[in-house]
Amino acid sequence: MSSVDNKESDTAGQPRSRRRAMTFAAQELRLISALVVLLAVGLFLALPFVLSIGAVVFLPLVAAIILTIVLSPLADRLAGWGVPNFLASLMALIAFFAVLSLALTAVLRPAVSLYDQVPSMIARVGEHFSQLRGSLEWVTRLNEQVGALVGSEEGREVVLAGPSFLQELAFATPTVLLEVLLTFMLAFFMIEARIRLRHRLLLQRAAVDSSLKAARVMREVQDRVAAYILTVGVINLGVGVIVGLGAWALGMDAPVMWGGLAALLNFLPYIGPLLMTALVALFGLGTAEAPLLGLIPAAAYLGLHTVEANVITPAVLGARFTMNPVLILLALSYFSWIWGVTGALLSVPILLALTALVDHLGKPNLIGFLFGEPLFATNVLELGEDD
After folding, report:
1. Closest-CA residue to 328 (of 259, 252, 270, 250)
2. Phi, psi at 348, each rounded to 5°
3. For residue range 258-285, what is the model confidence (pLDDT) as tens digits?
4. Which residues contact 364 (CB under 8 A, 6 or more apart)?
5. CA–CA separation, 47 vs 39, rounded Å?
6. Are the C-beta atoms of residues 339 and 263 closer than 8 Å to each other?
7. How many alpha carbons fall within 13 Å on the CB side of residue 167?
8. Domain boundaries, the chain
């Protein structure tokens, strides 16, 4: 009888000890997950200050990584045609530099000539608004009466003299040239070393599964970023051509500049088209005799952008590149805060690369984690119970 009782107590105690071990393991896993979340939040909050302070180093590095992802397929194509790797990398970078220089030349040269006309345009816009204010004179009289009743005090306005635009440009030029030179040098060496990097990631792994996963991650990141930039570049080129033809048809000065400016600003989601609309409206109101005639170019561009952003671009890109607009705006504001206009241009490619990595590594369940669920969808404890 004693031996039978001992067996029953062992079989009854074994599930109890297993449940106790699983409970301890779940608590330990949740504690580690909480520490990971806290570290991620701290890194997210501290990263802008580190990247902004070290922008001279980090900005060229990130820009060079994006250029390497975009230009590596072109270098691979040239290498497949029998061109040596060194020359293929150099030719890919020169091709990008030539396209960028051509686009900036088409925009900047007419813009410099039109820069002197900005004061007269602003004066003309002021005249239009003064005419509009004349028709709404009763609002002005009402404001004056309210101010008299409140008893507003007039103060002396102090205007502090600051550096002119040319002085700021002269101060910023050496830093910009240094960052551009460093970016292209880093991009060239990264493109040239892409084959060796692939061999290290794929062949120098202890397990075959990790090598295959690394290959899939590299291919997905490169395909997403390169295909997105190439597709959006073609769409923006079409937008620039249409805007240039429209500016020529409406008799606007420098239609090539307006087309190039529309193509370049369209790389900035949401903010770029709004800025383009404001510039076209300023030019139209500053050169037209009547306010309604001056708003025709801005209304035409706004209609074109509406069709392009809601019909053409989603149809061409498809669901693969569809991202949450909230994430796009957060990335845009986050990297614009860190690196300004350059950060805004790099925000969407960086977001695409991060989403590709997250799709392969696993999406954290942050909302469910706050209510007691596992941080990731795959629960290792449940896998252990199944085994």
Report:
1. 270
2. -70, -45
3. 888 888 888 888 888 898 998 888 887 7
4. 37, 375, 376
5. 12
6. no
7. 4
8. 50-114+175-204, 224-387
User: Is residue 242 predicted with pLDDT exceeding 90?
Assistant: yes
Structure tokens at 26: 């779940």
- 3 state SS of 162: coil
Taking the CA of residue 280 as centre, how many other CA atoms within 13 Å lie in the half-sphere pointing to its CB?
30
Burial class (CB in 10 A: 0-12, 13-18, 19+), 347: buried
Which residue has tokens 């997905």?
220
pTM for the full predicted model:
0.70
Alpha carbons 3 and 70: distance in angstroms, whole number: 73
Q: Which helix (H) or strand (E) holds 56?
A: helix 55-80
d(CA 166, CA 387): 71
Q: Both ends of the chain: CA-CA distance in Å?
A: 34
Distance of CA 144 to the CA centre of its chain: 46
Give CA–CA dist 272/129, Å, rounded: 25
The span from the CA of 101 to the CA of 103, in Å, is: 5
| pLDDT at position 363 over 80 | no
Contact assessment for residue 67 and residue 96, using Cβ atoms and an 8 Å cutoff: yes
What is the three-class DSSP state of 21?
helix
State both tokens at 359: 């799709």
Instruction: Give one DSSP letter per residue of 125-140, joined into a string.
Output: HHHHHHHHHHHTHHHH
